[in-house]
Each structure stands twice: as structure tokens, then as C-alpha cells.
Amino acid sequence: MKLGRKQVVAALAGVGILLTSVVLAPAYAVPSYPTAAEVAAAKASVQEKQKMVERIEVILETIRIEADALEVIALQKNEEYNQAVEAVAQMSAKVDGLQSKVELAATEAEDAKIQLAQIVGKMYRDQASGNTSLELFFNPGNAEDLLYQLTMQDMLAQRTGAIYQAAIDKQTQAKSLAEELSSAKEELQGFEAEAEKIFAEAKAAADAVIAKVKESERERANMMSQLATLKDTAADVERQRIEGLEAERRQNLVKSAPTAPELYSVAEPDWSKVET
User: Fold this and answer.
1) How far is CA 89 from CA 80, 94, 180, 196, 264, in A?
2) Is the dihedral of CA 114, 119, 122, 128 positive or negative?
3) Is residue 17 included in any domain, yes or no?
4) Residue 161: which of 97, 130, 116 has the closest Cα?
5) Based on CB atoms within 10 Å of each CB, which residue in 15, 36, 126, 259 is the most buried?
6) Per the structure, how many domains does the chain have?
7) Which tens digits make up the pLDDT trace of 203-236?
8) Residue 104 to residue 48: CA distance in whole angstroms
9) Virtual CA dihedral for 173, 174, 179, 180, nearest 10 degrees?
10) Residue 111 included in any domain
């Protein structure tokens, strides 16, 4: 079975994460995104701008946290998928090994049956050629040769029994291996079904995650634009305030130029001119 794992990886590579199911992702409340009108209204006050900046920064942080959480789940589910694929590979190797053993055992069992049939056939032909006991009775001069034949027949019978038992053992082994192979094939089908399930979940989730990420990126880009606008405006206002205070201080210095003694005396500070 080919799972097409590369297709899943390719489909998810665009977002850099691997998920098997969207429902497994943490549930987050939808952030209250500020509208353009709210951002524009916040520009009227430094305090409101600061509040809006903090609000947008919280939203951006929420988006980041959600992405991190999804990435953690992605790594876990990707490992689960890898384990499923590995289980299929191991079981496939086991099935292949058992298949080879079954074929070898079947061949050996068949060879043993053929060998046994050949020996039985030879014994039958030898018995059909004459009665050894009668030959020994009527021709005692050939007793030595006949006794040798009887001994050989006895040895042949013993060998035949051993070959017969070996043939039975081979058949039993072949049957046992065939049953084990059948069980392994069923187990392999279960692993394949599980891997295919994870594959299907990952593929289905890929499209949903990609769409979610694209949506989040659009919102994030909008938030960043609003944040940049607010910070730039706030910085400009602060610059104008500082420049105004400095100009006012210079004008006051010109209106009341200090005398020589005043240059060496230290008076109380004019708190109205101190920048805060």
C-alpha cells in the first residue's frame, strides 16, 4: 500500500505545520479586532492611543500563542502519523518474511512427499520381484545375499519411516506458517486502515489549516499596519510636545536675562518649565 505521505507533507509545507484534525486544536475566543473607525478615534488622545496600542499588542500576542499551540499539536500528530507509517512498514516486512517461509516450507514438504513416494515405490517393486523368505528356504546357498537384502530392506523401512515423519513435520510447519501469515495479513490491513485514516485526516485538515493561517495572516497584517500607524503618530505628538516645551523655555530665558550675581546663585526651580 502506498500512502502518498509526500502529498500530505507538500500540502502542509506552505504553512509549516502538520495537523491531523482541526477539532484537536485548542479553542480560542475570537479576538475583538478594532475597526478603522476605532483606530482613527484613538488618534485624538495620547491615552486612547496607548490603550489602542496595548489592545492591538494583546491581539498580536494571542495570534502568536495560538500559532505556537497549533505547532505543538502539529508535532505530536506528525509523530503519530510517522509511527503509523512505521508500524505498516514493520508489519509489511513481517508479512514478506512469513511469505518467503511459507513458500520454502511448502516446497520442502512437497519434496519430502516426492521422496517418500519414490522409496515406497521401490519397496513395492522389490516385494513384487519375489518372496525373500521362500527364496531363502529353497536356495540356502544364497543365504548370505538374501540376509543382506533383508537387512537392507529393514534399514530402508527405518529410513522410510524417518522420511515419512519428516514429511509430516514439514506439512505441519507449512500449515502453521500459513496460518501465521494469514493472521499477519489481517493485522497489516488494520495498520494500513489506521494509517490511511490518519492520512485522510491530515489531508482534510491541511486545507482547513491553510485557510485559517491565511485568514490569521490577513488580520495580523492589518493589526501591524494599525499598530505602526498609532506608534508613528504617538511618536510625532511626543516630539512636538518636547519641541514646544523647549521653545517656551527659550522664550522665557530671553524675556528675563539673568544679572551677573544671579549667574552664581541657585534659586528654586520653576516647576512649570520642567519637562515631565
Assistant:
1) 14, 9, 18, 13, 92
2) negative
3) yes
4) 116
5) 15
6) 1
7) 766 666 666 677 777 777 777 777 777 776 544 4
8) 84
9) 70
10) yes
Domain that holds residue 34: 5-243
Position 210 in a domain: yes
| H or E segment and range at residue 118 | helix 46-128
Q: Give the side-chain half-sphere CA count within 13 A for 139.
A: 12
Q: What is the CATH number of the domain that holds 90?
A: 1.10.287
Q: Which of 75, 96, 65 shows the shortest CA–CA distance to 17?
A: 75
CA distance 26 to 47: 34
221 sits in the region (left: phi over 0; alpha: psi -120 to 50; else beta) called: alpha
User: Does any domain span residue 264?
Assistant: no
CA distance 89 to 200: 18
Read off the pLDDT of residues 4-25 as tens digits, 9 standing for 90 and up. 444 444 444 443 444 433 334 4
Contact call for residues 105 and 170 (beta carbons, < 8 A): yes
- Please list, in sequence order, all residues whose beta carbon lies within 8 angstroms of the beta carbon of residue 222, skipping any fewer than 6 positions away: 33
Q: What is the pLDDT of residue 86?
A: 92
Q: Please report the DSSP string for 50-69 in residue order.
A: HHHHHHHHHHHHHHHHHHHH
Residues 185, 93 contacting (CB under 8 angstroms): no
Would residue 54 be called left, alpha or beta, if left means φ above 0 and alpha means ψ between -120 and 50 degrees? alpha
Whose grid coordinates read 507533507?
9
Mean pLDDT of the chain, nearest integer? 68
Check: pTM over 0.85? Answer yes or no: no
